[in-house]
Design a protein that fits this description.
single chain, 297 residues, alpha+beta, seven-stranded mixed β-sheet, five-stranded mixed β-sheet, 22% strand, binds the ligand Nc1nc2c(c(=O)[nH]1)N[C@H]1C(S)=C(S)[C@@H](COP(=O)(O)O)O[C@H]1N2, binds molybdenum atom, molybdopterin cofactor binding, signal
Length: 297
């Protein structure tokens, strides 16, 4: 399968097929109109960001609203003896240790493009487990339709929680078929090492075709439910942040265009790159057949 990636594959193999084709199209297109510089730009769109980019420019409001705040403050997050409550419509509910939840499951490297709703992006080499494998372990009942997630709250360790910058706990959700899609992972590492606290240690969601805020960090609860669960940014401002939040260059945020993005790490004068439908992961399109993607944003 295209996205059952192994660590010993080449960069071409680890790039999602749609992105690879897309890149060739971009290069061919650029050559056709003589834009020599543009092929370098297309190549850059697929090059993983440095570890230091990924660990120093973050959104994690529990540790403050500035991009440098999480790197400065998340050292206080206590990740020892981490447990994850699994509840709702499951055969095996309970308070799982990390090892009980994911021990023995296949950890893969996934080099994913990551697009924040604020119109910046990165490419991140995650290490993680398909969420579907975890769902199989806990036994999802047939009446379940959505998966809800919740982030840890450690008020004494979280300056953003002390200052009440947004409502906590941070919550997110996916439709069950989105959660089961092979691209959806629970990440535990980056560049082959345990992930830094500011990236959502010890375990966070990664849904590469959706805006970054869907990829909830430092998860302590997974609930299988039959109704669409609340999601933090939708609760804060439903007009600006939908439940689905699929990356879509054609649907502007009320306050800015989503047609292009700035890749972090490119320097002040780097060209913006085009944002792609589903962030380039066209293989998810079938999940939304018959839905008006301008309405279900
Ligand atoms: N718990 C929690 N999860 C969160 C956030 C947050 O503030 N709190 N920010 C989200 C947003 S807006 C983005 S863009 C990504 C950023 O992930 P990164 O810092 O690893 O790049 O995390 C998402 N997950
Ligand atoms: Mo974001």
């Amino acid at each position: 399968m295209a996205y059952r990636w192994k660590n010993d594959l080449t960069r071409a193999d680890v790039t999602p097929k749609s992105m690879w084709l897309n890149r060739r199209q971009i290069i061919a297109g650029a050559a056709g109109v003589g834009l020599v510089g543009s092929s370098a730009y297309a190549q850059d769109a697929l090059t993983p960001n440095s570890k230091s980019d990924i660990e120093s420019y973050n959104n994690f409001y529990e540790f403050g609203t500035g991009k440098e705040d999480p790197a400065r403050n998340a050292g206080k997050l206590d990740t020892s003896n981490w447990t994850i409550a699994v509840d709702g419509l499951v055969d095996n509910p309970g308070e799982y240790s990390l090892n009980d939840l994911i021990g023995g499951l296949t950890v893969e490297e996934r080099i994913y493009r990551f697009r924040c709703v604020e119109a910046w992006s990165m490419v991140v080499p995650w290490n993680g487990i398909e969420l579907a494998d975890i769902l199989d372990r806990v036994g999802v009942q047939s009446s379940a339709k959505y998966v809800a997630f919740e982030t840890v709250v450690q008020p004494e360790n979280m300056i953003g929680v002390q200052r009440n910058v947004i409502p906590f706990p941070y919550v997110e959700g996916l439709r069950l078929d989105e959660a089961r899609h092979p691209l959806t992972i629970m990440a535990t590492g980056i560049y082959g090492e345990p992930m830094a606290n500011q990236n959502g240690a010890p375990i966070r969601l990664v849904v590469p075709w959706k805006y970054g805020f869907k990829s909830i960090k430092s998860i302590v609860r997974i609930s299988l439910v039959d109704e669409q669960p609340p999601s933090t940014w939708n609760l804060i401002n439903a007009r600006e942040y939908g439940f689905y939040s699929n990356v879509n260059p054609n649907v502007s945020h009320p306050r800015w265009s989503q047609a292009t993005e700035r890749k972090i790490g490119g320097g002040l004068f780097a060209a913006r790159q085009d944002t792609l439908m589903f962030n380039g992961y066209d293989e998810v399109a079938g999940l939304y057949e018959g839905m008006d993607l301008a309405t279900f944003y």
